[in-house]
Amino acid sequence: MSTTRHLVNRQRRLATVAAAERTTAPPRRNGRTGEDEQQSVVTPDLEESSDSHDAEQTEEEEADEARGAQQRTMPRLWIRLPVVLCALTVLLGAFAAWSFTAADGLRGDASRQNTALTDISRTSEVKGQISEAVGAVFSYNYAATAKSDQAARTYLVGKAVRQHRDMLADVRAQAPKQKLVLTTTVTESGVELLDSDRARLLIFADQSNTRTGASEETTYAAAVFAVDAVRRGDTWRISAIDTFTR
Question: According to the model, what pLDDT value does residue 46 have?
Answer without folding.
Answer: 40
